[in-house]
Specification:
365 residues, Rossmann fold, Zinc Finger, Delta Prime, domain 3, 3 domains, 6-stranded parallel sheet, two-stranded parallel sheet, 8 strands, 55% helix, globular
């Protein structure tokens, strides 16, 4: 059975199951779900806990299976946590997990929690994961996307008796906060807790935080990755793209990887544009080029705004920047690789521009 993380509290009110699987790449939300399971289990008499981390191909699964079948002299109920950081239990682990899943339905004295990273489609279709899903409860923990981050911050502030001002000032405060913590939810949680210590709710302030207070207190702990950069460029979010490129440079990301990501998007735009020119419907052209999910929607919005000539010009720019990041000089282009990447990204961003959050003129750095 699958449930969303937000449904966990209501699910536990109806009764605790014997097997739970938490998977996803957001550590904070996975930890909070695990803490909720532990806390509820303690109220049900689960007083003993043991943890097993599957590391390497030679992990001894017999220890886990033995633990499931034994209780100490001092506890009649136990929690067993099985962490698989790689998401790949191996052949022996696959058999063991299927056995654990099947036995869980008859084991009310043991709560088993399996902790996994983000899983691909093939892994979710495997026999061992299917067994965990069929015999227990699975929660997929997804990262909070940038557009949902201000609301997430507001909810967390509200839970500790704080809020931002009403109207535009409050919106600006939440957007500023989101820019500072994007891609680093654990640090965002810590910054929110820090605000409770610095500016505790009182009768005088009614728990309202000003923009100045947030600006002075919240550290810039944002973390970016090139895949989110790709989405921001295709969405036409020029200012955010600039921040992300600055962040990637500060974190030591390789210039060639950033260029590869931008160039891949440009090549994909070219292929889809050519396919449409040959008479293929847009949905078919996107599927043929393996473009789906969030990027599919961004392509659908951007393609009508970009001409075939503009795509060709972008492709030429990408080829020039490829040389720059590898140490070559190009006329009329910055010699610095990061400055050239900024310019290429903003060229694409300007053509894909859509929505009120896009910046009108691309930065020419």
């Amino acid at each position: 059975m699958q449930i969303a993380p937000l449904q966990l509290g209501r699910h536990l009110e109806r009764g605790l199951k014997s097997l739970y699987t938490l998977h996803g790449d957001e550590p904070l939300l996975q930890l909070e779900a695990l803490d909720a399971l532990r806390a509820h289990a303690r109220t049900q008499g689960f007083s003993e806990r043991s943890a097993h981390t599957v590391a390497g191909a030679h992990f001894d699964w017999s220890e886990v299976l033995a633990a499931l079948g034994s209780l100490s002299l001092f506890a009649d109920k136990q929690i067993i946590e099985i962490r698989i950081p790689s998401g790949k239990p191996g052949k022996e682990g696959s058999a063991a997990l299927q056995q654990i899943a099947e036995q869980s339905k008859d084991n009310d004295s043991t709560l088993t929690v399996v902790l996994l990273p983000r899983l691909d489609k093939a892994t979710k279709s495997s026999a061992w994961f299917t067994a965990l899903e069929n015999y227990g409860v699975t929660l997929q923990v997804e990262p909070v996307e940038r557009q949902a981050l201000p609301q997430w911050i507001a909810q967390r502030l509200g839970a500790q008796g704080q809020r931002v001002a009403a109207g535009l000032e409050g919106q600006h405060t939440l957007q500023f906060f989101a820019d500072r913590v994007e891609g680093n939810l654990l640090a965002a949680h810590q910054e929110i807790q820090k605000l409770a210590l610095l500016y505790p709710p009182t009768a005088a302030n009614d728990g309202v935080l000003t923009l100045e207070q947030v600006e002075s207190a919240v550290l810039n702990v944002a973390r970016y990755d090139v895949f989110k950069l790709s989405e921001a460029v295709l969405a036409g979010q020029a200012l955010r793209v600039q921040h992300m490129l600055d962040g990637l440079q500060a974190e030591g990301e390789a210039e060639v990887l950033v260029h590869y990501t931008l160039a891949e998007d440009i090549r994909a735009l070219k292929r889809v544009k050519d396919a449409i020119g040959q008479g293929r419907p847009l949905p078919m052209a996107l599927r043929e080029n393996r473009i789906w999910g969030a990027k599919e929607r961004l392509f659908e919005r951007a393609l009508p705004r970009i001409s075939a000539k503009q795509v060709a010009e972008l492709l030429n720019s990408a080829q020039l920047v490829d040389g720059i990041v590898k140490g070559l000089k190009q006329p009329d282009w910055p010699a610095d690789g990061w400055q050239a990447l900024h310019r290429l990204a903003q060229q694409l961003c300007a053509l894909c521009k859509a929505g009120s959050d896009a910046v009108a003129s691309p930065a020419r750095r």
